[in-house]
Amino acid sequence: MPKNKKKQESSSSDSDEGPVDRNPPAEKKAKMGNRTEDKEPTWVLQGKKLVKVREFKGKVYVDVREFYEKNGELLPGKKGISLTPEQWRKLLSLGDEINETISSLG
């Protein structure tokens, strides 16, 4: 029985430390969820699926891509698409029609 009491005591102190342990991942997500203005403006869709506005060979692209982590750094993966500003605007203009189709199928 005394062992259970120690576990309960330690669990009460653990519960005080529990939220502290849970905060860093939430802070990481919060940092990723905010738009950043450093090198490339970035928005998080979900998890490691990001939208970035980038410049490549003097041209601007909207890059919707899944990233992976290597050595603590997020790197772009193969899964994704880069759209020109014209293609991005076209996609946005199709939004209502796409949403109606999703609703009718769902």
Outline the fold blueprint.
Blueprint: H1 2-33, E1 42-46, E2 49-56, E3 59-70, E4 73-83, H2 85-93, H3 95-105
Antiparallel strand pairs: 1-2, 2-3, 3-4
The assigned CATH architecture of one domain is: Roll
Rg over alpha carbons: 22 Å
Percentage of residues in helical conformation: 40-55%
Give the termini separation.
Answer: 55 Å
Question: How many helices does DSSP assign?
Answer: 3
The parts where pLDDT drops under 50 for at least 5 residues are 9-32
Q: Which outline best applies?
A: flat
CATH class type of one domain: Mainly Beta
Q: How are the strands of the biggest sheet laid out side by side?
A: 1-2-3-4
- The fold-level CATH name of one domain is Transcriptional Co-activator pc4, Chain A
Strand content: 25-35%
Q: Give the helix/strand class.
A: alpha+beta
Can you tag this structure with a few keywords?
single chain, 106 residues, alpha+beta, Transcriptional Co-activator pc4, Chain A, four-stranded antiparallel sheet, 4 strands
Mind explaining what this structure looks like?
There is one protein chain. The protein has 106 residues and is an alpha+beta fold. The protein is flat and about 50 Å long. It is 49% helix and 34% strand. It contains 3 helices and 4 strands, in the order αββββαα. β3 (59-70) and β4 (73-83) form a beta hairpin. The N and C termini lie far apart (55 Å). The chain has a domain at 42-105: Transcriptional Coactivator Pc4, Chain A (Transcriptional Co-activator pc4, Chain A). A 4-stranded antiparallel sheet has the order 1-2-3-4.
